[in-house]
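Notes from the 1:1 (GR / supervisor)

We went over the backlog. Supervisor wanted to see one worked example end to end before approving the batch request, so GR pasted a single chain during the call. The sequence is below; no edits were made to it. Supervisor asked that the structure be written out right there so they could see what the output format looks like.
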Amino acid sequence: MRRTMMMLYRSGVWLEQARATGEFAGRIPPCDAPDAWKRIACDVALLAGGGRLRFRFLKDCAVGAAGCNEKEGREELKVDLSGSSRDYTANDDADAAAATLVRWCGDAKAVSLGMWVHACFVENGQDRETFLGNLLVQMYGKCGRVLDARAVFDKIERRNLFSWNIMIAAYSQNGYAREALQLYGQMQVEGVNPERFTFTPILSACASLGALAEGRLIHARIVAAGLQSSDVTGNALLYMYGKCHCLKDARGIFDNMHRRNVASWNAIIAAYVQNGQCNEALRLFQQMDFEGFKPDKITFLTILEMCSSSASLAKGRAIHALIVTSGLSSDTGLGNALVKMYGKCGGLNDARAVFDKMNQRSVVSWTSMITACVQNEEPSNAIELFGRMDVEGVRPDAITFLSILDACAS
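Structure output shown during the call:
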């Protein structure tokens, strides 16, 4: 009880700060008027008491988060919950409204608000319910709070397949690959059979660990379940075998896929780049275009990494031209990759041209440009950029300092 009240208090402070700064103005509720926030503050104070006020607050917030009116909000809830198994469907409109709010907290990374909603579930004795418990696990996983997700998971009285899937995904997506594999094993010990949504995050965990033996066992399980033709599991297998340096297996899966999508091409191209076979990666990139698949940001990031590894300035410029014609030249991530590629390929003027045209520069942008100057024996330009970075209020990170120290030593 004491911990719950502390969570309520901290979340109440956070809500007051959000009201003062307008952090969620236009989203919860879809209005930035002070009286709207006063109404929320009033409902917050009475929420733990349950009943109609609780339902009204959660319903209003859910509809506000969706950015629609009450009628549209109810229709959206109905769509969200369709196809769910009986084990984790909402019991009533209040649960459905609460579900939408918790989902929104996860998508918006609003962990403070999510913790407050969780505290209210605890107060009302709902935190052990399968439906709401699953959503809390998912929310904490999306917010990077893996220990909180596991604490909720362990308290769910009747776990279903969805419970196991989202907990495994929370581990896998937040760098807890070994824990994901352990939970996968526990899941089977408890007699829960995995399905295709289980295999994707667990294969990602195998890829992160380079756990080829475990990956092969999961592959055999996928074949036994008749899921080898699924593009989702096929792409996950491609990624796993690529990261585990098994190009033959990766290529075999790719060549036998009935339905390929852009993610499939990205995975096989990345497998070749990661294993140093840049010519074959480029050939696949060209084949992808020939077969009518449009490259996306991930494709270009992978091919630019290839150009950096092979120090091929001509190929890098050709890829840059394709990025421009694809309408992706304003993307900050691709801009950073271009600066890095040009720096490694000896095209310092090209790198500076890309850097100067960037609409938004992150610390990675500045660090990449400083590093490019150091790599091309222009330490004075690197030091000048470091000064500009400070003037523009961009805080350097550890990699920035390493690069500027190299410049000072030159």
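Supervisor's comment: The chain has 23 helices and no strands.
Batch request approved.
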